[in-house]
Specification:
By secondary structure, this protein is of the alpha+beta class. Helix content is 23%, strand content 35%. A hairpin with a 2-residue loop joins strand 1 (32-34) and strand 2.
Length: 92
């Protein structure tokens, strides 16, 4: 991995990640930062999209799927990265 620091282990809570590590992790998930707002990321999958908001207290995920209402979830930063990633990837 050239130019990229190692991420903490997947069991590490998000609140023990640096901002740079969180950004690296979101990029590895396939998310892209929303232009003009470094705290908002967009993740697109084949059957849904998610807005990921790095809020002060938790990571807010808003999923949108075709012909469905938006679903919103707040994931505390105290959760491990692997648990948050699993929740995001589970989709709406």
């Amino acid at each position: 991995m050239s130019g990229m620091a190692e991420l903490p282990t997947a069991e590490t809570p998000l609140n023990q990640h640096s901002i740079r590590a969180l950004e690296q992790w979101l990029s590895q998930l396939g998310a892209t930062v929303v232009e003009g707002n470094p705290c908002e990321w967009r993740l697109t999958r084949s059957d849904w999209t998610a807005e990921l908001l790095l809020a002060q207290e938790d990571l807010v995920v808003v999923w949108s799927a075709h012909a469905q209402d938006e679903q919103r979830c707040s994931l505390p930063y105290g959760l491990s990265r692997q648990d948050v990633e699993a929740a995001i990837n589970a989709g709406p």
